[in-house]
Amino acid sequence: MGTRTGNRAMQVLLTGATGFLGRRVLRQLLDEGCAVRCAVRPGSDVQSLRDFVGLRRWSRAETVNVQLANPEQCEGLVQDCDVVYHAAAALSGSASNLVMNSVVPTRNLMNAASEQGVGRFVLVSSLGIYGSQELRRNSLLDEKCPIDPAGHLRDPYTYSKILQEEVAREISQESGLPMVVVRPGVIFGDERGAMSHRVGLQLGGLLLRMGGGQRVPFTYVENCAEAVKLAGFKEGIDGQVFNVVDDDLPTGRQVLRKYRKAGRKFRVIGIPQVATNWLARFNEWYSERTEQQIPAVLTRYRVQAMWKPLQYSNSRAKEMLGWHPSTSFDEAFEKTMASGA
Amino acid sequence: MTEKRIKIGLVGCGQIADAHLQQIRRIPWAEPVAVCDLEPLLARQAAERFDVPGQFASIEEMLEVSRPDVVHITTPVESHRPLAKLLLDAGVHVYVEKPFTVDADEARDVLDCARRNDRLLCLGHDQLFDPTWLECRERIEAGEIGDVQHVESVLGYPLHGPFGTQVIANPDHWVRRLPGGLFQNTISHPLYRVTEFLSDDQPELQATWFSRFKQISFPTELRAHLRGEDVTGSLLFTSSTKPCHRMTRIYGTNGALEVDLNSQLIRADRVDRYPGAFAKIEAPWRRVCESSANLAQNVRRFCKGELHYFEGMKQTFLRFYEAILEGDEGPVSYDEILRVTEIMDRIFAECRKGDSERSEIKRRTRQTMSGTQTKKHSADNPEGLVAELSAGNGSQTV
To answer: Which of A41, A42, A100 is closest, CB to CB, to B42?
Structure first.
């Protein structure tokens, strides 16, 4: 596809541009010479976005205040766009909020994009949507693995991402809108450290390290942004899905060790892999017995999906997107620590 | 003997619908049969997560296919009147999430419709059925604090929580369109905890609202004082303090009780039994004993699985469903529903009146200042300036 359409710079629409990943995608797209229309919510901190990308680049960017949950507002938004990058997503809140702020906007935007004949729709999804609970320990999780068939049994965020992809796929198939899906692992970097749920769960001042020997599918935010950018440019990848994880993934235990080395202190209780299932079993039993006085946050289903030791592959992204995580995990971690995240 | 059973439908699958469905699921003989939302994706997520067999985008279709006995309305308040009337006319009983309606005129209309159709209607005054509140009521009725004289009710609002952030971010959010703005959505909770002790239909009231945050364009704080024939009350809604209290303090002629709904605690203040310095020892000792008893009670309730945030909601549903099955009156009287809605209208009207008066004072002050500036340029006349300002401000205080 390249970054030029005829004599003009490629026009793209980017949602979620003020977000952690989105602002890096924006910077990289502007560096490629694209004209970028950023869909932002009314009241978003555009000044901070402008400062982040720098005034020199900003001349090729524009912002449009829009509520993506409103289909009428999506119609004009995608006009004349060659590619739509949809990186906006709600990260927390109740399932209904997540659906309203992630799935509904995706449907509206895709409907508008297919009507306007947009050349490609790049959906930023999540590595979490796989039905990894069905996989054997230490097996390979790649793009061929099936999506979790019972998303409602997962946490609300993962459920919303599963629903989002399902809706996106339906629209793409029905309307013929070319779509590329990027499924990043745990994105980390400045502003957002590497202390993910995949490492452990915060309980008050304690960190329950879940397992510890399993690899955490990290991707450094700048590496991930590059993969997302490439997903809009490369020819011949319509309909493809790309898992985005870095090379040399550390285990949860190694991440904690690195944090300690960097001078961070945690009160950690290590839950051995085998005990995570028993903990989940107890949580389920107690929750059911007390009519959810404490909700069943930790279930066997979720434990299996989240903390099972697996191997992660990024070979498809490397082969078809020509992507290589240019910053190694060690270097990225140091940068993240230096930023104070 | 027929098995006790009631079929429940729900309209509006947003955040509060989760709480409704969770609590309905705790009643073994209540069966959620359908959920409905104009947005099919919202209906779908509610149906999947709570294992509800029917999901619909049309109420008429839901009524026809699933045939619920009761329908819960958990949509934004603007739609409560048309939805409630449609459902009541269709012959189902209706549970409405607070706030009841946009204003008291709408409330009267809906209540008339319920009477006309001989269907029961219940409003979510659920904190009145929270076990801690019920225990406090029992203790007051047993005469522990004598006659109630004053009630202070506090609601801390998590403005930067999941719902508040949406209200802030979206200028078109339905909450921003309400006559009482942010307050209209939640103020009924602390208010009905006051009106429970006020017998007056129309207590005197003073109210004001304002914002503590420069970047937020709508009021986020509200203060109200109510004066009834026998009892007075005050209401504090704040979004600038932490923790977010849900607390009521009831003052009587012989002591006071403080109900903390978050911690499920009741604290008592009693008249000192010992004189002078001895009282300073007795008071903390009483606190120690009371805290020990509260701790023991909450540990007991924790072990029995009775510490639920929405326990009051479950108890309200239970009473409402039983009233339907047994042909009794519902747990919240129609008079009380109307009275609380009317008082809310008056509170918001009073706040808006205050806003207009303040704007007018500002306008006149600006006018006077600019007039004075001109004068000051033409003649150095400080006495005249003071006289002008005083005349401009009249007798009102800024």
So the answer is: A100
